[in-house]
Structure formats: structure tokens, C-alpha cells
Amino acid sequence: YSTFPRSPRWKKEDVTFRILNYTPDMSQAEVDEAITKAFQLWSSVTPLRFTRLYSGEADIMISFASGFHGDFYSFDGPGGTLAHAYPPGNGIGGDTHFDEDEFWIKSNTHEGYNLFLVAAHELGHSLGLGHSNVFGALMYPIYMARDTRNYRLPQDDINGIQALYGPPKESPAFPPQEPTEMTPAEAPTEMSPREEPTEVTPSERPQDCDPHLTFDAITTLRGEILFFKGSYVWRKSPYFSEIERDTISTFWPSLAAGFDAAYEIDKKDRVIFFKDNKYWAVSGYNIQPGFPKPIQNLGFPRSVKKIDAAVHDQNAKKTYFFVGNKYWSFDEHTQSMERGYPRKIAVDFPGIGHTIDAAFQKNEHFYFFHGSNQYEVDIKNKKLVRTMKSNSWFDC
Amino acid sequence: FPVAPETEKEDMQFAQKYLENFYDFKEEKNFRTTHLNPMADKIREMQSFFGLEVTGELNRKTLDMMKQPRCGIPDVRS
């Protein structure tokens, strides 16, 4: 994280804000909610209290404007610069401006820029934070669409704002009645995927070239291959030579770490993640509404509590689910399990005589992973072609 | 995806504006320098900030990063 030169900050805990005007892209209630949630992010980790004014001069004046709007930083039309804000101070100090030429949205179900995310970032500036070069941090300068339903402030941003204001005092920073204004669609779902305590620090990142490296799940995603283990993900892209390492929460903050299985249906631009008896569908960063769903919806008997691995055959339009020493075949056309399953893996895939941890398809081959080994199988004749180390994709 | 400017010259102008806005680049008219490309230092600074390969050259990945929608506050300040 960084701060502005000389680290300007508000010398008081009670900071006022005022919303001067609205964007026609969203209802006024949606704009109010997005900005209120954004303030709540910061007040929940500092002693700061934010009070809204409806007239007169507030510390943080919030407005939407296009092109030249009276300060030295004119906006630039659609794209490019989305918004900016000024560090704490008198006059324009603390003020936040949104570029009205952008299309502002409430949730990521359609194109546009999520006002809550951008507001939360700009309010970081209004409180004294500069940009962070930590990928995935809220104060990272580049816009990244994310699922905002259970959005949590990343640790780098918490460290930054607490360096300026310290941690919160015991009493809640917001009057209790405010949060209830969240619309039901935004309230955490009963089956919200993140079940573990909130402050979980990721375990040590496994080494790329550890000869004993195993994976929880592997899938393709828009031409890349994603390897999952615990809270970590390795990304192999056809466009960049080096492997990129991230955490799952960087892309899908509301999904719990430790997937069981994952597969991509390329034609629908959709990846399905499995954990225990539930599964989620995502499209890029966006978790599809209506998920998670119980895996029984796919046609598994009740005796199946979780699955080991899944792979989608793009040519046959079938998805294979692996559980123990058996596997099921799911017909994506009819959206139902094929008759005659489950079958023994070893019978149909000679040479694969064990359980499967993870699987994915690339070109004419399936790649099955078991422990620290990987098995390349020719899809057409289901013959084992060769065995490799599980991390052979990492150029060790 | 970002819409790419058509010509290399446009790319360079785009990059110069970006570095002026966000990396405090100042093109000194009578700037005598041993650098063939006075922007190279600032390109290196931007590449380092975003964890890109630090080459000082305006390569495709660097340009793609510059075209991402972003906040209007500078990344570095003098």
C-alpha cells in the first residue's frame, strides 16, 4: 500500500460526506446503497465514522461529471480513467468524482463498472491512501470486475488504512439500522460458499517444482489452464511464458478455497466449481446467480457426498465425473446423466487403475492427475499415451 | 477488450500521455540525454509497479496494461 506525500489524513474520527448528484445509469437508491457499502468497508476496519449530509459543505463531496468539470483532471470519455479522488484536506480535499461517461452498474450481471467497487477504491484516496501495486488489492489502480456479494477488504488495504487511522474501537462503526437497507439480492445467501471463519490466512504457497506437488482441481478457462490447490491457483497462459500465481480469492472472493473439482464448458464461457456437495458456475469473475446448487441436481445418488474430479469433452459435449474408482457421464445436451453409469474407470481407461484428483482436456487428450503423477490419455481410443509429473506444465 | 490505436506513433503518444498522467513524466524540450528514448525510465517504473517484465520498451503487454480502465490518480508522485 502507499499514502500521499506527507501522509495527509483526517485529524478526526467523524467524517462527513454528501452525494451532490446521481448517474442516470442506476436508481438513486442503488447509488446510495453502493456508496454506503463503500464507506462501511473502511469504517469496519478503522475508528472512523461517516455521517451523510444533505446540504452544505461536507468533508467528502461526491459527484458524477463528464470531461472538464472544474479541476485539473478532466475526464476522458468512456473507458480510460473511470474516477478520481483527492487526499484529505480543505476545499476539494477528500472529494470524489466519477466519470459520468462510464456506464455504472450495481452488480456484475451486465457490462459496466461496479459503482461500489470504484467508490470503495476512490474513498480509499479520500481517506489518504495512494495506489497499491499488490495485484488484487482494492487500491490497485486497474479496475477488476469481481463478485461483490461477500466482498471483503483485502489485507493490504486493511494494513494501509490502519497505518493511517489505527484499528476500530470496540463499538460498531455504523449505526445498526444502516446495513438492513441492503436489498435482498445483495444479502448473503443462505448457502453463501464461504463457511470458514473470516480471518483465514492462506497456508504457505506450495513450490511450483516440488516433486510431490498434487492438485485439488484443474480446469481450462478462456484458453488458460488453471491449477488449484488449497487457496492458491497457478495460471498457465498461451500468451505469457511465465506461470502466474494468485489466490482464489483474488478472482472469486466469495468462493471458499479447496475445490474438489472444476471443468469448463467452453461454448458457454462457463466454469463449474465443486466443493463438498455443492457446485458453482462462474463466467470469468462473475458467479452466476442461483448458485451454489446441490450436486444431486446433476443426477448423482444421495450416497455421493462429493466428487473427486471432472472433465468436459468439448467434442462429445459430455462431462465425466470421477468418484472413487467409478465415473459418471453427463450429457450436456440433455442435461442428464447417461444410462449405464457409473462404470469402473479402469475398465474404460486402461492404465488408470486409481482415483483421480483432477482432470482437464487439451486438444485431443485428457490429462488425469493422481498424487504427483499425471496421465495423458488419447480421448478417441481412451488409451494411455504417457505418464508425467503433475507439475510438468510449470516448466520445472 | 481495449480498442488498440492504429499506428505505432499513436501508441507512443498514448503511452506518453499515460506516463505524464500517472508516472510524472515530463518531456523536457531541451532535454539533453544519453537516452535514445527519454520515456524508457518511466516505462521501466510503470512496468515495475505492475510486475511486468522491466524492459523500458513499449511492448505489447505494457501497452495492454496502459489501456486497462483505471483510477485517475497518479501511481507515483514527485
Please, could you describe this protein's structure?
The complex is a heterodimer of chains A (396) and B (78). With 396 residues, chain A is α+β, with helices and mostly antiparallel strands. Helices cover 12% and strands 29% of the residues of chain A. In chain A, helix 1 (28-43) packs across helix 2. Chain B has helices at residues 8-23, 40-49, 60-66; one strand at 70-71. Residues 1-5 and 29-35 of chain B have low confidence and may be disordered. Strand 4 of chain A pairs parallel with strand 1 of chain B.
Annotation keywords:
heterodimer, A: 396 residues, alpha+beta, five-stranded mixed β-sheet, five-stranded antiparallel β-sheet, 5 helices, B: 78 residues, mainly alpha, 3 helices, 3% strand
Elements of chain B, N to C (H/E):
HHHE
Helical amount of chain A: 10-25%
Total number of helices of chain A: 5
Helix/strand/pairing class of chain B, anyone? mainly alpha
What secondary-structure arrangement, pairings included, does this model have?
The complex is a heterodimer of chains A (396) and B (78).
Chain A: E1 14-19, H1 28-43, E2 49-52, E3 60-65, E4 81-85, E5 96-99, E6 104-105, E7 113-114, H2 115-126, H3 155-165, E8 217-221, E9 224-229, E10 232-236, E11 244-247, H4 248-251, E12 261-265, E13 270-275, E14 278-283, E15 286-287, E16 293-294, E17 309-313, E18 318-323, E19 326-331, E20 336-337, E21 343-344, H5 345-348, E22 358-362, E23 365-370, E24 373-378, E25 383-389
Parallel strand pairs in A: 1-2, 1-3, 3-5, 6-7
Antiparallel strand pairs in A: 4-5, 8-9, 9-10, 10-11, 12-13, 13-14, 14-15, 14-16, 17-18, 18-19, 19-20, 19-21, 22-23, 23-24, 24-25
Helix pairs in contact in A: 1-2
Chain B: H1 8-23, H2 40-49, H3 60-66, E1 70-71
Brief rundown of the structure:
Chain A has 396 residues and is an alpha+beta fold. Chain A has helices spanning 28-43, 115-126, 155-165, 248-251, 345-348; strands spanning 14-19, 49-52, 60-65, 81-85, 96-99, 104-105, 113-114, 217-221, 224-229, 232-236, 244-247, 261-265, 270-275, 278-283, 286-287, 293-294, 309-313, 318-323, 326-331, 336-337, 343-344, 358-362, 365-370, 373-378, 383-389.
